[in-house]
Design goal:
There is one protein chain. By secondary structure, the chain is an all-alpha fold. It starts with 12 loop residues before the first helix and ends in an 18-residue tail after the last helix.
């Protein structure tokens, strides 16, 4: 069986999809997942368990599970607390569209 896909020159539906700016909800979800990934990496590098993180943050282990699931809105307070618990600082800033952030 031979499958042929006919596409007009320059017509790229997937490209059009990615060219659109993500919704606020999609961008927020992506950023939550990225910060949780950073936190998990720091925990792994230092051998910090979820239970230990909870102790260091002075929260219940269920709260750490909630934070690491990325399901909740993460407040600045929570992010600072988590950062301090793994010996890191939270840095946040706005970068104008089309510009890159440099540290």
């Amino acid at each position: 069986m031979k499958i042929t896909i006919n596409r007009r020159k320059g017509d790229n539906p997937l490209g059009k999809l990615f060219a659109k700016s993500p919704s606020i909800a999609a961008e927020a979800e992506y950023r939550k997942l990225m910060i949780v990934e950073e936190l998990l990496n720091l925990m792994k590098q230092q051998g910090i368990s979820r239970t230990e993180l909870a102790k260091r943050m002075d929260v219940l282990p269920s709260r750490v599970t909630s934070i690491l699931s990325g399901a909740n809105n993460l407040t600045i307070d929570t992010l600072i607390r988590a950062g301090r618990a793994v010996g890191a600082e939270l840095h946040q800033h706005f970068v104008p569209d089309g510009h890159a952030a440099h540290f």
